[in-house]
Each structure stands twice: as C-alpha cells, then as structure tokens.
Amino acid sequence: MNAALLILNAGSSSLKFAVYRTDSTGALQAEYRGSIDEIGGSGRFQVFQGADVPHDRPVTAKSHEQALRLVLDWLESRHPGLELRAAGHRVVHGGAEFSRPVRIDAAVLARLEKLIPLSPLHQPHSLGAIRALARLRPDLVQIACFDTAFHHTLPSVARRFALPRELYERGIRRYGFHGLSYEYIASVLPDHLGDNAEGRVIVAHLGNGASLCALRQRRSVETSMSFTPLDGIPMGSRCGALDPGVLLYLLREEGMSVEQLDMLLNHRGGLLGVSGISGDVRELQASADPHAAEALELFAYRASQAIASHAVALEGIDALVFTAGIGEHAAPVRAAICRRLAWLGLRLDETANAGHGPRISQAGSPVSVWVIPTNEEQVIARYAWALSAGE
C-alpha cells in the first residue's frame, strides 16, 4: 500500500511533523520525523529516519504555509506517487464540546476558532496550519486531535472552580491538557502493569510543559493543569499554580499590563525564573550555581506535592509512571521526587533508575514506579487512519 499519514504539530515559529505508514503486519509505524524551526526567519529543515538524517539544510520559510510546502515537496521528491491518506493535527484545545478527535470541515474550524481565547498561545498556530494545508491540498482529509479530550471523564468536582455557577456555564472550568500523551500511556499500561493497569495510577508528564494525571481504570479522574496550561507544577518557563492575589497586586501596585503579565507567567517564570539561568533541566543539572539547584529542588517539591494530592483523588496509589523529556531522561529528578514520596510506599531502585527503567522501583515496593516513553504522534496517527476511513 502506497498510502501515508502526515502528522503535524504547529508551534508559534516551528512545524514538527511525522510520516506514518503501515508495516507488513498492518501496524502504523513512523517512517520519518522532522521539523522546520525559526519560521519567519532563517531556520533549519531536518528529517530523521530512525538514526539516519536523509535531509538537513538551512531554509527560510516566511510562514507555516511555506514550511508545509517544503515538507510536501520533499516528501513527493522522496516518494513519487505517494498517496497522503490524511493529515492529523495536534490541537491543544477542544473546549467543552470536543470530547474526541474529529474530521475537520468549515463548521468544525469555525467552532475551534471560538476557542482561541482559551488557548491564545497555541490554538492560532494549529488552526493556521490547518488552513494552510487546506489551501495546498484542498482534497486532503484533515483530523483534529485534542489535548483536552482525554480529560472529559473528569468528575464534576474535579472540573469546577469555586466561582459563581454562571462562569462555569460560560466555559470557565478545569479542562486539563497533555491528553494525547496520557491517552498513549493509558493504552500501553497493560503491557507493563498487567492487571494493575486498571488500578490507581498517577502519570507524571514532565517536560518543558509539565503536568500530572490520576487514572482509574485508565480514565482521567484528576489532572494538575486546569483552565490553561499555566496551572499546576512549575515548568520550563511557566510559573504553575499561583495565588491569584499576586496577579491583583502586580496589576494594582506594580502597574503591569495584561501583556506584561502574560510574558511573566508564560515566559519568565518556572525553572527559568527561579534559576535565572535556563528552563532546561539538563543545563540546570550541569550548573554549579546554587540558584540552579534551588530551581530543581522546587520542581521536585511541587511535583511530589501534586502527586500526593492526586493520590487523594484516587484514595491511594498503586503505580507512578514518569514520561516526557524530563520524566524519561532525568534520573536525579525522578529520584528527588520519589524520595519525598517514600511515605506513600515508593521504594526506588537506584540502579534501575539510573538505567531509565522501565521499572525503577524495588521488588516488593508497595507502589510500583515506571519510566514509559510517551508517543503522542502514535495516538494521532491511529485516529487519523481510522477517521479517514470513515470509522
């Protein structure tokens, strides 16, 4: 079969993509992964095929549409006659309406446009890529997969803020994010935990963006991000949970504008803000600056607090799973979190942790601890394949 899927994740100045095809068994596998960065300026177009790099060159793409054209032209030159069956997009916000992936048409796109105020940093870029691809390939089926959809199973008590009810009806509620990552982890839990996969599992998606999710029967019952991806634990440059009185103070006493607050909370906070060095855990671990150590300690402290609070939602914990960039690769961070949670029954195996798992808890630990790589692209590919076939 000469058919393929194009999986897209558009950022403010970047375009990440993957090309999926079926193997001899019919399973979907990524044949290529790549990216174009610094859109609007001088960037780089890289493509990876496993450990090989079949394409790597400087480019100047002035828009996401130009970047998409570069990707499509490269793919067609590499595989003449290749049929793109569908394109699957990571869309951060599906609001209260979209609880599952959908085929995109004009009506869906119009409804997604209305959600831009809920995700102004992400939604416009995803929708811009959808519109650009529609201009370049008007007959190509496009599928939207939402980071919020997995959390539609949250119980009412976990969805609400303690605000007047009419605000909830106007959409001010806890949505949760990183749902594509959590859905993937939930799908592979039986491969690692066996029958315990249906139990009380907390997943820590720790990357530049970081959140947690409590699973029961592999469904989301609590999560740390809420109305926006700003909430929860500190991240690379996002502050995480913050006393709302701080915002009132900054507005009233410091005279900050909304734009200045936006920059502070999203781009000057988190590990970057506390360390004054970087939001990258790798750089902080390599630094001798005490502020770097303080930032890492704060990250582990807040993450362990959040894990404990998610255990309350589950009335206990059977397993803890680390995933995403920090969760999968930063053994010292995992160790610092687990040390704070020893009272919950976590017994870390230091050797297994240094080797990045998959199981990093000691034999007989009341709570098993795991490192499981996530794969959001795979989730998008599965939905794009099914929905493009009308399933």
Write a structural description.
The chain is 39% helix and 22% strand. The protein is of the alpha/beta class and 391 residues long. A hairpin with a 4-residue loop joins strand 1 and strand 2 (15-22). The chain is built from 15 helices and 13 strands. Strands 5-4-3-2-1-6-8-7 form an eight-stranded mixed β-sheet, with helices on both faces. A five-stranded mixed β-sheet has the order 11-10-9-12-13, sandwiched between helices. The protein folds into two domains: 3-146, Nucleotidyltransferase, domain 5 (2-Layer Sandwich), CATH 3.30.420; 194-376, 2-Layer Sandwich (Nucleotidyltransferase, domain 5). It has helices at 64-78, 106-113, 123-136, 156-159, 165-169, 179-193, 244-252, 258-267, 270-275, 281-286, 290-314, 324-329, 331-340, 350-354, 376-388; strands spanning 3-10, 15-22, 28-36, 42-49, 52-60, 83-91, 102-103, 141-146, 200-206, 210-216, 219-223, 319-323, 368-371. Helix 1 (64-78) crosses helix 3 (123-136) and helix 6 crosses helix 15. The chain is globular and about 60 Å long. The two termini are 19 Å apart.
The biggest sheet, with number of strands, parallel, antiparallel or mixed sense and barrel status, is: 8 strands, mixed
Order of helices and strands: EEEEEHEEHHEHHHEEEHHHHHEHHHEH
Number of helices, counting only DSSP H or I runs of 4 residues or more:
15
CATH class descriptor of the largest domain: Alpha Beta
